[in-house]
Design brief:
Elements (H helix, E strand, L loop, with lengths): L5 E7 L2 E6 L10 H15 L6 E6 L4 E3 L4 H4 L4 H20 L4 E5 L2 E3 L1 H8 L2 E5 L3 E3 L13 H9 L1 H10 L3 E2 H6 L5 E3 L4 H13 L3 H14 L4 H15 L3 H11 L10
Parallel strand pairs: 2-3, 3-5, 4-6, 5-7, 6-8, 7-10
Antiparallel strand pairs: 1-2, 8-9
Helix pairs in contact: 1-3, 3-4, 4-5, 5-6, 9-10
The protein binds octanoyl-coenzyme A.
Octanoyl-coenzyme A (CO8) binds next to helix 2, helix 3 and strand 6.
């Protein structure tokens, strides 16, 4: 599939890189970008070798500087609602993708850009990254799930401070408040992402897929039911070839060769 506003490539076997590619607009999210991200996630999900998707922004200035303000400025209420719903659906597709999605935040991740990063499974930031929910400057609130995901990641009080003040958070603070898992020099960002992606790609594919599923789905339900779901998935994994291979390899003191079934 060919795209106009994003670029999708397989960097290494099973490891994909999606780049939002509108550097002149600091990679702002237009409706087309959202459609193309969703289509790219579906395309990667359709490839049996897919293990990890990394998501970044083109250029050296921005990951994504927000939803496209020029496009939003002329939206009718109906178009605005559709844009918000498309944003929610696209970000949910990242959360439910059957492989980990790593955000490589290389610059501004503001508004919808911060929300996009939050919908990825974890964030690796460059030392040039700047996060924030500046929607209050524009007389709007976050509209792609930012109020909810941010509060779940950094806690209610910090989320309230950030969405009510629009204050920007640099990489070192993002690391401190648990928004970013790692901060590295800008020129080491892709390599750090690849390093983590390779670690994932070497593990049992079904186990990784189901581990992500448990963490993501478990966020939406109570602890007792989430733990019950975990027990069911654990039982299911006991029946896989990967479980047999993983344990046989450990006992034979050799590396495991997972088939992903
Ligand atoms: N949308 C559209 N264009 C943008 C955006 C954006 N979010 N951000 C930057 N651009 C454009 C600028 O207009 C400029 O274009 P041009 O060269 O044609 O004038 C170009 O990118 C470069 O930007 P700047 O000249 O402003 O670059 P600076 O280095 O001076 O500043 C900043 C960089 C600080 C990132 C600045 O561009 C900025 O503040 N951008 C806006 C950030 C923002 O407010 N983001 C939140 C947007 S609202 C949102 O995301 C809501 C999400 C939920 C939507 C729900 C749907 C209904």
């Amino acid at each position: 599939m060919s795209f106009e506003t994003i670029h999708l490539e397989e960097r290494e076997t099973g490891i994909y890189l999606l780049t939002v590619n509108r550097p002149k607009q600091l990679n702002a999210l237009s409706p087309q970008v959202l459609y193309e991200i969703a289509a790219a996630v579906a395309e990667v999900a359709g490839r049996s070798d897919a293990r990890v998707l990394m998501l970044t922004g083109a250029g050296d200035k921005a990951f994504v500087a927000g939803a496209d303000i020029a496009a939003m400025s002329s939206m009718t209420p109906i178009e605005g609602r559709e844009f918000a719903l498309k944003g929610h659906a696209t970000l949910r597709a990242l959360e439910l993708a059957p492989f980990p999605v790593i955000a490589l935040v290389n610059g501004f991740a503001l508004g919808g850009g911060c929300e996009l990063a939050l919908a990825c499974d974890w964030i690796v930031a460059s030392d040039k990254a700047v996060f924030g929910q500046p929607e209050v400057n524009l007389g709007i609130c976050p509209g792609f799930g930012g109020t909810q995901r941010l509060a779940r990641v950094v806690g209610k009080s910090m989320a309230l401070e950030l969405v009510c003040t629009g204050r920007q958070v640099k990489a070192d603070e993002a690391l401190k408040i648990g928004l970013a898992n790692h901060v590295v020099a800008a020129d080491a960002l892709l390599e750090q992402g690849l390093k983590l992606a390779r670690m994932v790609a070497q593990k049992g594919p079904v186990a990784v897929k189901m581990s992500k599923h448990l963490v993501q789905r478990g966020q939406d339900i109570d602890l007792a039911n989430a733990n019950a779901m975990e027990a069911d998935v654990f039982g299911f994994l006991c029946a896989t070839d990967d479980r047999r291979e993983g344990m046989d390899a450990f006992l034979a003191k050799r590396p495991a060769k997972f088939a992903g079934r």
